[in-house]
Recover the amino acids of this structure.
């Protein structure tokens, strides 16, 4: 149909409402013309496979979570999932891929909150992570645990602080990410407790943990999933976790807040993200599907088995506010020591 014929038809359909002002009639007609195609596109979504980019390597945590939650989520939406790990660039490669994809909701991303809260402070990026990413759902969460070699003399955090004070500049923490959350928590503990823990750098969590287990470095702030097997086997011991409440995986380990160090409360979480321009109706559908998958007992049980707690159903606004606050806090701490991104 010719566009002029369509417009005339729409106006004729409105003629019986003669009491309405002409401006109202024209506005309603224009709305009717626009609503049709938009509604058709929304109803047609998803019209092709949904691609989930993973900000991480194949087989790593983000990839595991993407497959555990993403595949049944996409199936529930009536589409086929394509999972694509995109490691490298501290997540910037994956985010860049998302930024170049059509903003129609057929491309999503799974990655950690550090993409927005931490990485921009650590690495000079050509992409603004916060502007390219919108969180849709928290899929999984895991705080950090302050772990030690079992031979370390302190039995609890209070004894640890006393020991470090009695042995100034002699106790180090294995640090696998300069400027990252583990580094920041070390600095915050130093400030809050008035101690001087040093840092030994490592290229990754695994070599750091290896040296802590081997007794070469006594302490480490590490993500609970990677430390959990060693904590369960007794090859590491834990002093505190950074979560807002005790971890279901380590219920016997207190939080820093419980022990009087509320500034060390910090949450690491794996999120489902999209481009901000994705239509709101599509965002809502994806989020609802993700939350339904996370509510399934089998999914929650599997999440705990791999060392994560299931994500909480926080709203998008709550997640955005949390990311902003974490970004500001990280920046302030790193600025206080003159840390500069590489």
């Amino acid at each position: 149909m010719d566009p002029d014929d369509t417009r005339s038809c729409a106006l004729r359909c409105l003629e019986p409402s003669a009491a309405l002002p002409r401006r109202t009639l024209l506005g309603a007609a224009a709305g009717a013309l626009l609503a049709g195609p938009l509604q058709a596109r929304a109803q047609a979504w998803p019209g092709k496979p949904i691609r989930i980019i993973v900000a991480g390597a194949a087989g790593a945590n983000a990839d595991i979570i993407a497959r555990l939650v993403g595949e049944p989520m996409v199936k529930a939406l009536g589409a086929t999932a394509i999972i694509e790990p995109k490691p490298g660039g501290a997540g910037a490669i994956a985010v860049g891929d998302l930024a170049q994809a059509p903003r129609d909701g057929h491309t999503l991303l799974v990655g950690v909150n550090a993409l927005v809260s931490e990485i921009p402070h650590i690495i000079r990026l050509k992409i603004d992570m916060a502007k390219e990413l919108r969180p849709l759902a928290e899929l999984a969460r895991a705080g950090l645990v302050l772990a030690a070699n079992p031979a370390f003399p302190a039995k609890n955090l209070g004894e640890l602080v006393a020991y470090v004070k009695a042995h100034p500049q002699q106790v180090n923490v294995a640090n696998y990410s300069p400027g990252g959350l583990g580094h920041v928590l070390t600095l915050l503990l130093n400030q809050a407790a008035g101690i001087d823990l040093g840092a030994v750098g490592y290229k990754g969590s695994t070599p750091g943990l290896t040296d802590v287990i081997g007794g070469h470095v006594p302490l480490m702030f590490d993500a609970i999933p990677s430390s959990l097997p060693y904590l369960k086997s007794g090859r590491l011991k834990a002093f505190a976790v950074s979560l807002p409440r005790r971890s279901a995986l380590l219920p016997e380990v207190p939080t820093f807040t419980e022990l009087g160090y509320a500034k060390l409360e910090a949450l690491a979480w794996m999120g489902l993200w999209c481009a901000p321009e994705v239509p709101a109706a599509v965002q809502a559908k994806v989020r609802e599907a993700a939350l339904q998958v996370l509510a399934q007992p089998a999914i929650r049980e599997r999440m705990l088995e791999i060392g994560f707690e299931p994500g909480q159903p926080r709203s998008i606004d709550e997640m955005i506010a949390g990311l902003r606050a974490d970004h500001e806090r990280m920046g302030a701490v790193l600025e206080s020591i003159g840390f500069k991104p590489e």
